[in-house]
Amino acid sequence: EYIVGKSGTVWCYLALITTLPSLALFVFGVLLSPSLGVVFDTWDLPFRILAASIALMVPTTAIALCFSSMTSESRYAGFGWFALWIFGEVTWHVYFGVTEGGRLTLVSFHAMLGEVQAWIFGLKTDLSEVLPSLAMLTALTVLSLAVMVRRVSAPMRV
To answer: C-alpha angle 5/8/13, rounded to 5°?
Structure first.
């Protein structure tokens, strides 16, 4: 219950800054279109927005709450969170620059999320390209949840 409550709070904030603006832009775009035929052409876009939001919210929430469960100081959890994003992104850009277009998205949380979301929106059609990122995000989520459950339930065990 504790973990679900904490996750729900984070999901609400993430939905306010990702899902709601995206859905509002979709509705605004439909209202500005010259005909309502655009609704039939883009009927699946709200579902893709929801799927992409879930693909963002679940792993990020699990990892953030995992960092939070490992320390009593919120600044250390914040440092871990930003270190994950910044060091992964810097490593990915350095590798990308050195190999002149090489791909190593598994070191960058941002790049993995980008690949999965591009696949959800149909920008990448080959699942074999996205599967490593999807597997790594799933593994990170499961590992983070396992650590978090262990850390939260530890004071209850005697």
So the answer is: 135
Kindly compute the dihedral angle of the four CA atoms of residues 119, 134, 7, 1, in this order, to the nearest 10 degrees: 130
If you ran DSSP here, which 8-state letter would residue 142 be given? H
In this structure, what DSSP letter does residue 34 have? S
**pLDDT tens profile 38-65:** 999 999 999 999 999 999 999 999 999 9
Q: Is 101 or 46 the better-scoring residue by pLDDT? A: 46
Closest by Cα among 79, 91, 141 to 116: 141
DSSP string of 51-81, one letter each residue: HHHHHHHHHHHHHHHHHHHT-S-HHHHHHHH
Intra-chain end-to-end CA distance of the chain, in Å = 20
